[in-house]
Request: fold
Amino acid sequence: MLGEGKFDPPVAAAQAPAPVVALRMGDGTWFGGSQMFGPGKLTAYSAKLTDSGPVFARVAVRYTYDNAIRWTSGAGDRGRQHRADGDPRR
Reply:
C-alpha cells in the first residue's frame, strides 16, 4: 500500500488500508497481513518507500486520527519502529 489518501468524513480504523498487505518469503510464497483497529477514526494515511535496494527496502507509514494523534511506523533492515505523537485532548 504505497501512496496517500484522505478520509472526509473520517473512517473507522478497520476501513483504512492496512500498513502491511503481505510479505513474501525467499521461495516466492506470500504470507501474513495486517489490519488497523481501535475506536479512533482516521482522517488520512500515507505510505512512502524511503529506501530500496537489492537486499532490503524501507517503508514509512503514517496514519492521522481525527483527534490529532499521528501514528508512524517504519520497517526496514533494522526491524520496525513505531511512534505516536499528538495531543489527544484536541
